[in-house]
């Protein structure tokens, strides 16, 4: 295989260049890349549907990278003196928000200092008058001195709880600001601006790309903090408790939401409203709190939505919300595999180099190790002669192989490290399984018994299918044991009955009771066992004998055609791994 890698002049992934730009690092999604380029230019919404780990989030970041940058205004929340529960929203030019806040803080600090001086003068004068009186009256004692100190402290505490600074000098709340420069970073070191820094929920991304995957509704649409001190002059003004949502932070940028089907209909409609109006007010979402009475004026949220999910996601989307993709954007089906060609094998090698560069803890792969990763990509692919695009899963083998090599003090990952990673990196389902020793695969099975390999990658698990056919007084009955009586299993048993009746009408298969028991992996396999069910039934009625080391992979249609299941390479490799071979000739 190594000669097909187009790596003749390269000994390891260390010499493979990693392309610049996120869009050029997406593997095997040519159609999606083309649509993302078009959508980013026109700022259209995009819905990406596909299996996990196929590059949906990378395409979302690439969208943000390709999008024309627009200046995003800073957003200030001011108190509304006419209606305190409806704070005012002021937009200013990008970068002017912090200087405004800084100036307000300077004036506020100056006025606060003056107020404190004014507050202290009466208490000091009262205390001095009392002290002078006691001295001249000849009544000065230590208790008089202590009482004077107590009076000063009491008056100081009383005055300190009173906020009499001019309301016009209340500092506005800067909730959206442009990226910080060095001067802004110095300002944010001040304790007063720490809370503002916490409000910028960018999750580590730039302001152009906001990932709102899995966030609760307050983080998505904005919220108002609960104030436990609402009375007595200790409360925080409503405008200071306003927190922006991801939709506001994504203004003039990209909002990315994976597992979009997880949003409730109510949240989808709110998101739809924000997309239509390009403005959305922030309201308190704490039930039972006075913050739920607070609602700001509408705040800008002009974003492009890149949403992602699996194929079932469409069922959970509100029709009106989905129209924002069908009518104002694109729906894209992600590829789960790509043709097994030298060029695409080179892309897998590029993927390994990208992973090493991205994760600084990984070490580079030798050419032979890359070839072994490509073998895994072939085995994990859902179709024959293709390479998998479940790159997150493939990346797991890359990281495991690197860990194994580093643990052995190696400079590069070798072929043996990849093989070992493939053996040990098994899903939890494959770690508690029925295993059969190869010497137990000699001879013939009992009637109605056949072994089935797992559909999970790198699995030594085995499934056992057992069938018994009984006379049932001219009544057809199907009994399924060990797994749900689902539509797939029932249909494959009925198809097997139909084919047997067509080939062997004298057996009267529709007048029998058929009992099929599933053990081990056979309980969990979702498809590709219809052929094994057919063989198990005709074995049970004495038409054939099945060897212990024989298996069958595939399904049947009503005409007797064999249908190749998904992940055939995984099943075939697992069969070989446990000593099973597919029956070469099946009479149907």
From TrEMBL:
Domain AAA+ ATPase: 42-300
Lineage: superkingdom: Archaea
Listed InterPro entries: AAA+_ATPase, CbbQ/NirQ/NorQ/GpvN, LonB_AAA-LID, Mg_chelatse_chII-like_cat_dom, P-loop_NTPase, Sigma_54_int
GO process terms (BP): proteolysis; regulation of DNA-templated transcription
Regions that span the bilayer: 120-136
Ranges in a coiled coil: 173-203
Gene Ontology molecular-function annotations: ATP binding; serine-type peptidase activity
UniProt-listed SMART domains: AAA
Keywords (A to Z) from UniProt: Coiled coil, Hydrolase, Membrane, Protease, Serine protease, Transmembrane, Transmembrane helix
Protein name: AAA family ATPase
Organism: Candidatus Heimdallarchaeum endolithica
The organism's taxonomic lineage, starting at the top: Archaea, Promethearchaeati, Candidatus Heimdallarchaeota, Candidatus Heimdallarchaeia (ex Rinke et al. 2021) (nom. nud.), Candidatus Heimdallarchaeales
């Amino acid at each position: 295989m190594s000669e097909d890698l187009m790596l003749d002049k390269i000994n390891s992934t260390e010499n493979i260049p990693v392309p610049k730009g996120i869009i050029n690092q997406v593997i095997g999604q040519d159609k999606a890349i083309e649509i993302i380029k078009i959508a980013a230019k026109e700022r259209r919404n995009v819905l990406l549907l596909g299996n996990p780990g196929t590059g949906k989030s990378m395409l979302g970041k690439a969208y943000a990278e390709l999008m024309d940058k627009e200046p995003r205004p800073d957003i200030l929340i001011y108190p509304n003196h006419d209606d305190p529960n409806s704070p005012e929203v002021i937009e200013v030019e990008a970068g002017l928000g912090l200087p405004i806040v800084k100036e307000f803080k300077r004036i506020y600090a100056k006025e606060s200092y003056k107020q404190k001086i004014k507050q202290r003068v009466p208490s000091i004068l009262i205390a001095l008058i009392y002290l002078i009186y006691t001295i001249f009256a000849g009544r000065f004692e230590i208790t008089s001195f202590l009482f004077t100190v107590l009076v000063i402290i009491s008056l100081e505490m009383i005055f300190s709880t009173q906020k009499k600074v001019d309301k016009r000098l209340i500092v506005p709340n800067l909730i959206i600001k442009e990226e910080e420069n060095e001067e802004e970073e110095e300002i944010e070191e001040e304790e007063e601006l720490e809370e503002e820094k916490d409000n910028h929920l960018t999750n580590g991304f730039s302001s152009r790309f906001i990932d709102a995957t899995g966030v609760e509704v307050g983080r998505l649409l904005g919220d108002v903090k609960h104030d436990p001190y609402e009375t007595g002059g200790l409360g925080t003004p409503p405008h200071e408790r306003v927190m922006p949502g991801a939709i506001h932070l994504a203004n003039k940028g990209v909002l990315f939401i994976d597992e979009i089907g997880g949003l409730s209909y109510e949240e989808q409609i709110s998101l739809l409203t924000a997309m239509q109006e390009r403005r959305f007010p922030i309201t308190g979402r704490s039930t039972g709190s006075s913050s739920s009475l607070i609602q700001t004026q509408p705040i800008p949220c002009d974003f492009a939505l890149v949403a992602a999910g699996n194929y079932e996601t469409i069922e959970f989307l509100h029709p009106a919300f989905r129209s924002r993709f069908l009518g104002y954007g694109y729906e894209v089906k992600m590829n789960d595999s790509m043709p097994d060609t030298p060029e695409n094998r080179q892309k897998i090698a590029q993927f390994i180099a990208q992973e090493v560069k991205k994760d600084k803890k990984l070490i580079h792969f030798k050419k032979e190790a890359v070839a072994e990763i490509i073998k895994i990509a072939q085995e994990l692919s859902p179709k024959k002669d293709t390479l998998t695009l479940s790159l997150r899963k493939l990346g797991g083998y890359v990281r495991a192989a690197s860990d194994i090599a580093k643990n052995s003090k190696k400079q590069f990952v070798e072929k043996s490290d990849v093989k070992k990673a493939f053996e040990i990196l098994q899903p939890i389902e494959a770690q508690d399984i029925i295993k059969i020793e190869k010497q137990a695969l000699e001879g013939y099975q009992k009637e109605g018994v056949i072994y089935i390999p797992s559909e999970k990658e790198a699995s030594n698990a085995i499934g056992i299918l057992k069938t018994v056919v009984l006379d049932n007084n001219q009544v057809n009955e199907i009994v399924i044991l060990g797994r749900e009586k689902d539509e797939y299993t029932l249909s494959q048993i009925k198809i097997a009955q139909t084919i047997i009746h067509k080939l062997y009408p004298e057996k009267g298969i529709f007048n029998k009771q058929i009992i099929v028991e599933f053990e081990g992996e056979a309980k969990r396999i979702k498809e590709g066992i219809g052929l094994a069910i057919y063989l198990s039934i005709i074995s049970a009625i004495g038409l054939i004998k099945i060897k212990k080391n024989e298996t069958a992979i595939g399904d049947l249609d009503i005409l007797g055609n064999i249908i190749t299941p998904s992940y055939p390479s995984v099943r075939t490799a697992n069969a070989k791994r446990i000593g099973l071979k597919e029956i070469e000739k099946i009479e149907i």
